[in-house]
Amino acid sequence: MSIFEYLHVVLYHSGFVCYNTACFGMKLSYFMKGWHNMSLVTTTEMFKKAYNGGYAVGAFNVNNMEIVQGITEAAGELKSPVILQVSKGARAYANHTYLVKLVEAAVAENPDIPIALHLDHGDTFELCKSCIDGGFTSVMIDASSKPYEENVALTKQVVEYAHAHGVVVEAELGTLAGIEDEVVVEAGHESYTRPEEVEDFVSKTGCDSLAIAIGTSHGAYKFTAAQCTRNADGVLVPPPLRFDVLEECIKRLPGFPIVLHGSSSVPQEFVKMVNQYGGNMPDAVGIPEEQLRKAAQLAVCKINIDSDIRLAMTGTIRKYFAEHPDHFDPRQYLKPARQAVKDMVAHKIKNVLGSDGKA
Predict the structure, then answer these.
(1) How does DSSP assign 258-322, residue by residue?
(2) Catalytic residue status for 120
(3) Domains in the chain and their CATH numbers?
(4) Average pLDDT, the chain
């Protein structure tokens, strides 16, 4: 059998069905183009470089094709590593297989940047196992709402299974207020991470990174008006992050990757856009970007961002509908929405995370 015939067989059994020489040549070119460096990665090397380099890697939640494209196009152009994360709610909405294949397509289109696929806020061993078995390279087990020993036991169970399958695990100590999909913690019931617990927790569980609570919060309504002050323009100013808690955790876990959840900044231009074009989002406020940049320069290697992408998409689509009431083709309004996602992610990479040029 010639090498040409052999490759034809390989491509055929890989799903590249060809019936003529021209088709075979095209498919072979595509196959060989993507043969090198076309795979998802874990966050291990990403976090090592981020910790030593004083920057963070953005973890952006994905729910559909346009979001995946917007995020990875920005990361690809800026040569930034990126984490695409999927929540339990996203899997229920879009289907596990569709999301994995969309991410695999993004990897093929952006072969020069490291991309990890991460489960965000996995709440059971079974959910984490399903994602590990289904192609994810990183999972989070969030047992932070449980008593400490139960958190340790469940996290350890996930870690043992994940590590046996080459997957890394993020865990959490402390709870954030706010709403993210099915994660709901009412204001007043959140709790800061206790630094005196972090060494014991990491040692007992073997987790690879740790999400801590230092005052960030899920969703677009991160703080009540009573928790904030107002500036001269009447705009809510959120309470500062607890950097003392972060710095104490760093001292107790030198070199260990720290994660911040609930780190959208809720840009007011998009809140105004949503409200201007029929929305109703009073007093939506987020985490100041300069505080997130400071955290990234310390030991925070992963910063989660979701609400800012949602606001950019929703504001852009609302504005488009108002300006083009006769349009009904989804491509017409999803194209600028995708660009809004791309612009938002590019801004975060350059001005908040500091991960541009770090691929």
Answers:
(1) EEE-S-----HHHHHHHHHTT---TT-B---HHHHHHHHHTTEEEEEE-HHHHHHHHHHHHHHHH
(2) yes
(3) 1-35 (no CATH), 38-353 (3.20.20.70)
(4) 87
